[in-house]
Task: inverse folding
């Protein structure tokens, strides 16, 4: 017998020739909470998806309680007792708690019309629930339950079958402080029964509260596994491990020059998403805003682009107070947002390149009567896509035929076509390969010579590599506001994931 | 190496072009084929009189299809126009019966129809109500109103003397006036949808409303405009249909649900997107076929049966065309739920 509940040995996985995981070893002891850390794209979610049967590993072995097992589907993982609970557990929201717990296992009798004994199911669910200090009304439809109750039901669902390993993927991202404590107590009880927990979170302070050991994944490799006590509260060391060496060559040389102030934001607030945000964006300078999902950065970009009205605060363009009622307003005032969700927000992908690029500023290609001047449109769009090296360079090709990187360049072209003076980039390199990344970074830098650029990202390497001035947001508030030269990427990361460097 | 890559790109493009032009070629072959078959089977098929009858009959259905095209382009569905256009037709007939002049009567009928179109558009585009249920409701309201004028009876007073029959029967340079009207409306529709900047707005709204809004397109206005335009052309179609019958019928628009949508989706299947020219050609195709069957003395109640089969065959042929081993995405987009910009 080994000491480990679960061992993953030499796990490798590549997507389209790009290595996501490179011979990763990972061990899990019975009854421990093991935190898995890494920046976005490091490979931690790939590792979890291999364990839960969503992806197939290219190489390596998974050993559960000393026996090598094969996991080819989520069903296999469940049968081996490996349960995964995601941040937004999938349930049938109109069904009650106990119905969800036993969904698909309502009865042992065979046949389509076998009677479901609801009383028995409810009692069975109550028995499982009673073992824990949590109180959940199992007879209410889950849509009436709050986030932590839903998560508890997802965990009970896993418990009602065989469970030896529990994977919690960002379980606290939508929980309040009290709800978190409920979840943590439940985790302690599961540990006492020998269940091993893999805990994924971006929030370092939480990890030190719950984890016994932790593993850092970076660039598809296990760079460190250690006891949580060993690290103590030295968050800086962890941040350094997560980031590793910087890839300087990816980013263009910084040429900041402080030009005219284009956009000034003061005391901007939006509902409970962000409060009291102030900054100014100037020509010649790239302003970086670092923030994770839920930090309010996405909402901030939408308020500045006129998609939603701010609840408080002031927006000034070139010193002039302005009220934006729609993106149309924003575009007319020289603001353009390159949105984060390319497919949903950026592209009309069943339409050709030319259609997409000219859409936000059709006035440039129409005649007096509002008819499209196709030759002019073709010429001007062609010039732009040549400049951005979009391939294939065919204005009549539907955008859906392009690769991710080229699609992103089409969205950027659309922005450039409006000749805005203020550009906001939201996660501009998400889902883009390294080659296209470098050229998008160059483009952003060039653009900053004639426009104010705001770069919003959850990749702090990107922020520190690209920007001249950096802000970090955490839970809707600014936690860092500094020139880039005066902070390390580690400090930026810590301000964004736990609100301060200490 | 580099040369090879370039070759692949062109090859891929050729494949895409082949995939996109093949249905068009098949469509025209079929059109020619049915014309040949019917002209062989029936010697009157290609006579001047039959062609005039065919076109006149086709005009009304085509005008219904034109309106429906706009609603489908903005990604929605309108179930109300059969009833709304009936109300418009009854309004016009009622006013004519009350000895109001013919042009103001037609104008009033169109105004009532467009008002319902605007209500649909505002409910769906601005208040984001679900399109099918909303238009079932507004359709029911308008049909209820249509009955008030005469308790549901035909209105024929003054129809013969008002001049509306003359408008319907007028022939200009050998072409019936309803045909001229229909072709002009299609031409205007073509200019708006395929030549003007507003066409980009209609398509962007329907293909991806969220991305359209992010591009500064005022999606709400386009949805309102599409429903209003649909109400306008279908109301005119209903008024023309009443004129050709010589009386106002409370049921005039009801038979046009399928004849309106069939050309839209057949055109979509052929050209792989919803277009004015696709709708026009498909409407002509369907009318030609129905005319041929009528000449062959096939009972009229088979027409829905035939259109239904044509539509299903066209849809199934157009959705499984394979591009480079991967299934092409369905180009027919059913109306999707109103998506929120901020979640």
Result:
């Amino acid at each position: 017998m080994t000491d480990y509940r679960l061992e993953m040995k030499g796990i490798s996985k590549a997507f389209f020739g790009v290595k996501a995981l490179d011979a990763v070893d990972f061990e899990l002891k019975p009854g421990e909470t093991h935190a898995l850390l890494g920046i976005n794209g490091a490979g931690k979610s790939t590792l979890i998806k291999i364990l839960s049967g969503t992806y197939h590993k290219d190489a390596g072995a998974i050993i559960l309680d000393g026996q090598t097992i094969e996991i080819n589907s989520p069903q296999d993982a469940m049968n081996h007792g490996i349960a995964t609970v995601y941040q937004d557990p999938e349930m049938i929201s109109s069904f009650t708690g106990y119905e969800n717990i036993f969904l698909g296992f309502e009865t042992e009798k065979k046949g389509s019309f076998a009677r479901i004994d609801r009383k028995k199911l409810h009692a069975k669910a109550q028995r499982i629930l009673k073992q824990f200090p949590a109180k959940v009304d199992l007879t209410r439809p889950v849509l009436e339950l709050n986030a932590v109750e839903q998560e508890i039901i997802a965990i009970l669902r896993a418990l009602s079958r065989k469970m030896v390993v529990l994977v919690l993927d960002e379980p606290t991202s939508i929980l309040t402080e009290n709800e978190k404590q409920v979840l943590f107590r439940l985790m302690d009880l599961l540990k006492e029964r020998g269940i091993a927990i893999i805990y994924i979170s971006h929030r370092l302070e939480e990890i030190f509260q719950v984890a016994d050991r932790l593993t850092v994944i970076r660039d598809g490799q296990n760079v460190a596994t250690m006891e949580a006590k060993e690290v103590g509260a030295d968050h800086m060391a962890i941040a350094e491990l997560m980031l590793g060496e910087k890839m300087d060559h990816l980013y263009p040389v910084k040429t900041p020059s402080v030009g005219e102030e284009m956009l000034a934001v003061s005391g901007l607030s939006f509902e409970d998403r962000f409060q009291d945000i102030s900054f100014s964006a100037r020509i010649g300078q790239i302003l970086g805003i670092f923030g994770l999902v839920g930090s309010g950065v996405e909402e901030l970009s939408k308020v500045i682009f006129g998609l939603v009205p701010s609840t408080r605060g002031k927006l000034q363009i070139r010193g002039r107070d302005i009220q934006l009622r729609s993106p149309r307003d924003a575009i007319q005032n020289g603001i353009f947002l390159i949105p984060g969700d390319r497919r949903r927000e950026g592209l009309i992908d069943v339409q050709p390149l030319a259609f997409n690029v000219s859409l936000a500023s059709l006035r440039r290609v129409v005649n007096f009567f509002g008819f499209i001047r196709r030759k002019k449109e073709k010429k001007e769009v062609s010039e732009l896509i040549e400049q951005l090296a979009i391939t294939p360079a065919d204005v009549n090709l539907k955008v859906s035929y392009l690769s991710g990187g080229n699609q992103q360049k089409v969205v950027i072209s659309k922005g450039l076509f409006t000749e805005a003076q203020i550009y906001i980039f939201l996660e501009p390199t998400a889902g883009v390969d390294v080659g296209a990344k470098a050229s998008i970074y160059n483009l952003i830098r060039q653009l900053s010579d004639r426009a104010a650029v705001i770069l919003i990202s959850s990749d702090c390497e990107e922020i520190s590599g690209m920007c001249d001035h950096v802000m970090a947001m955490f839970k809707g508030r600014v936690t860092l506001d500094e020139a880039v030269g005066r902070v390390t990427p580690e400090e930026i990361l810590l301000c964004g994931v736990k609100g301060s460097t200490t | 190496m580099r040369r090879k890559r370039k070759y692949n790109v062109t090859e891929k493009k050729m494949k895409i072009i082949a995939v996109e032009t093949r249905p068009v070629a098949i469509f025209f072959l079929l059109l020619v084929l049915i014309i040949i078959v019917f002209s062989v089977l029936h010697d009157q098929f290609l006579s001047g009189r039959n062609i005039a009858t065919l076109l006149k009959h086709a005009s009304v259905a085509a005008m219904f299809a034109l309106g429906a095209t706009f609603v489908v382009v903005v990604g929605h569905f309108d179930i109300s126009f059969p009833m709304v256009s009936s109300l418009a037709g009854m309004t016009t007939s009622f006013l004519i019966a009350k000895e109001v002049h013919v042009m103001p009567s037609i104008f009033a009928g169109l105004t009532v129809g467009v008002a319902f179109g605007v209500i649909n558009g505002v409910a769906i585009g601005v208040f984001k109500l679900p399109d099918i249920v909303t238009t079932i409701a507004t359709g029911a309201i308008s049909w209820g109103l249509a009955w008030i004028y005469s308790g549901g009876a035909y209105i024929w007073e003054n129809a013969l003397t008002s001049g509306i029959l003359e408008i319907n029967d007028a022939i200009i340079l050998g072409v019936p006036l309803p045909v001229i009207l229909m072709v002009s409306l299609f031409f205007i529709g073509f200019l708006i949808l395929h030549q003007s900047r507003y066409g980009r707005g209609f398509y962007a709204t329907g293909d991806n409303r969220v991305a359209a809004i992010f591009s500064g397109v005022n999606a709400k206005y386009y949805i309102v405009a599409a429903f209003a335009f649909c109400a306008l052309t279908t109301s005119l179609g209903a008024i023309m249909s009443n004129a050709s019958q010589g009386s106002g019928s409370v049921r005039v628009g009801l038979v046009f649900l399928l004849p309106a949508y069939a050309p839209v989706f057949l055109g979509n299947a052929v050209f792989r997107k919803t277009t004015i020219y696709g709708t026009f050609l498909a409407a002509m195709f369907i009318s030609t076929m129905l005319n041929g069957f009528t000449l062959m003395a096939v009972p009229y109640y088979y027409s829905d049966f035939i259109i239904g089969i044509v539509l299903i065959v066209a849809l199934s042929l157009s959705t499984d065309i394979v591009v480079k081993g991967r299934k092409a995405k369905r180009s027919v987009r059913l109306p999707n739920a109103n998506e929120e910009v901020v979640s």
Notes: The longest strand of chain A covers residues 18-28. DSSP finds 18 helices and 20 strands in chain A. Residues 107 and 113 of chain A are 10 Å apart (CA to CA).
